[in-house]
Amino acid sequence: MIFYDFGDNSFCTRGYTWAWSLKPRPPELLLRCKKCTAGMSTYPKHPLGLSVEGGVKYPDILGCGGYPLLIVSQNVIDDWEKFGITGYEKYEANIVEANGKRIRDLKPPQYYHINITGRAQYDMDAMGFRCEVVCNYCGHTRFVDSNNNMDIPSPTIIKDGSWDGSDIFAADITPRRSFCTEKILFLAGMNERTNCRFVPLDDKDPVSNKGLDYKAIAKRMLRETRNPFEK
Length: 231
Ligand SMILES: [Zn+2]
Hints:
Helices cover 16% and strands 30% of the residues. By secondary structure, it is an alpha+beta fold. It has one domain (3-226). The strands form three sheets. A six-stranded mixed β-sheet has the order 2-3-6-7-5-4. Strands 8-11-12-1-13 form a five-stranded mixed β-sheet. The longest helix has 10 residues, at 214-223. Zinc ion (ZN) binds at residues 33, 35-36, 38, 135, 137-138, 140.
């Protein structure tokens, strides 16, 4: 099974607008621990308003600077629902403000923000890092690799037996980092959804590359009769 790191590709694409902030800021995201001041990771399970700025068109996956939310268009949701994609809950994300002369006259698509409910865990021993609790009050953790860098090293290795079979999933210790199966890439590629980013989990340098050409890969999968829905 091939898994991918998945999200928006706003840093490598041009022309798509970007959500700068949430309006109003949802109260869950303002909660801070009284002891260590870390943000609490309560997911806002309700509709949100978005303020977008710049660009000349709306993408299917919208980058969000205010908070690392996965925000997808109605088109993406339609793909996922039609093909029974699992591992998420969706909540409306509505454009309430559009700044920039090219974007403000366009009608935005309906967007949704995605709470990832599918789960798999990192194989921390194989990847060479550990997760330390730094605040006993809220349970806030930090990641430390074998060189004492506070980071999660690459490539990502999923612990054997920890994947629950969901098409969209995250690890408990990084609930906002989205992973997915080939089905998500295939649907995005075949339907030419825009501004998607897919990087294989076994990539040693997932951050500085441009992401896969998922449209070409999906067409190749179809040609080679590797449609992931027919396995
Ligand atoms: Zn704390």
